[in-house]
Design a protein that fits this description.
The chain is an alpha+beta fold and 160 residues long. It is built from 4 helices and 10 strands, in the order βαββββαβββαββα. It has one domain (2-136, 144-148): Aldehyde Oxidoreductase, domain 3 (Alpha-Beta Complex), CATH 3.90.1170. It has helices spanning 14-22, 58-73, 104-120, 141-148, and strands at residues 2-8, 30-37, 41-42, 45-46, 49-54, 76-84, 86-88, 93-101, 124-130, 133-136. The chain is globular.
Length: 160
């Protein structure tokens, strides 16, 4: 399985990343991509930027561990996770999750699983910069609830 995990300051090209993952691979029948963008508001208040910090080395290892869990659950042919850190302004991409499989069901489920993990368990910290100053963002109960659906022991799902 082709796997790419990168944490970087620089912007990324989601279409180029998906193309790189599937180039010359006739067995791939589905690619699902999710790109998370920096919104221009947080809790109804306009923001200037987000500052994302991570724990280098640990973040990549934790993401890799969850990619392996996704592989145990679904018949994947490729996974790409690109997550930015540093200062990100509204409209810029923050994260890309791309999954490839023979069939769409596995690709969709694996992408959702990985994003739910990234939102709740990956070692990233987010600070919001507004005109009034900076504030660290707390975890959201709704994100934790979404991730809870994956708490059952992994079992490899059949291709559909």
């Amino acid at each position: 399985m082709a796997t790419t995990i990168r944490l970087q300051r620089e912007a990324f090209d989601a279409a180029a990343e998906a193309a790189r993952m599937t180039h010359g691979r006739g067995e791939v029948g589905a690619v699902v991509t999710f790109t998370g963008l920096c919104r221009g508001e947080e809790n109804g208040e306009p923001i200037v930027a987000l500052m994302l910090e991570h724990y280098p080395g640990m973040a990549e290892a934790e993401i890799a561990r969850h990619v392996e869990e996704a592989r145990a659950r679904w018949p994947l042919l490729g996974v790409t996770v690109v997550h930015r850190f540093g200062r990100i302004v509204p409209g810029e991409a923050i994260v890309l999750v791309a999954t490839a499989s023979r069939h769409r069901h596995a690709a969709f489920a694996a992408a959702a699983f990985l994003m739910d993990y990234l939102k709740t368990r990956a070692p990233f910290w987010k600070q919001v910069e507004t005109a009034a100053g900076e504030v660290w963002v707390e975890a959201k109960a709704a994100d934790d609830a979404a991730a809870e659906r994956w708490s059952a022991p992994p079992r490899r799902e059949a291709a559909k």
